[in-house]
Amino acid sequence: MSIGKEFKEFAMRGNVVDMAVGIIIGAAFGKIISSFVTDVLMPPLGMIIGGTDFSSLKIQLSEPVLSAGKVVAEGASLNYGKFIQVTVDFVIIAFAIFIMIKMMNRFTKKNEAPAAEPAPPEPSKEELLLTEIRDLLQKNQK
Fold it and tell me: Is the Cβ–Cβ distance between 78 and 61 less than 8 Å?
């Protein structure tokens, strides 16, 4: 079997195609949530806590390198504000996906037919034999 044919079989499996669609939709959904957090949620939150823009929060570790009055290299800094922003994005995305999956599970449960009660398991040969012995003993005692 040629490598091209093997790759085609691999790429056309249902799982791979489903996963690719999920990743593409997830990336688009992530952009929507990221925009919601950055453009809608964070500005009011920043105003509530004193006009702070989280993405600009940082601790400057070294000064920028200047040459002839121009910045040649930025100074090193810990950009913890960007980390806070990404963490908030993640929490909101995770919560939105959780709610979405919960709703999907609720819809699939409504669409599924109720499962029939499983039949009780048949007694084993030992149980049948013991039942016969018990019945014979009870019959002989009367």
Answer: yes
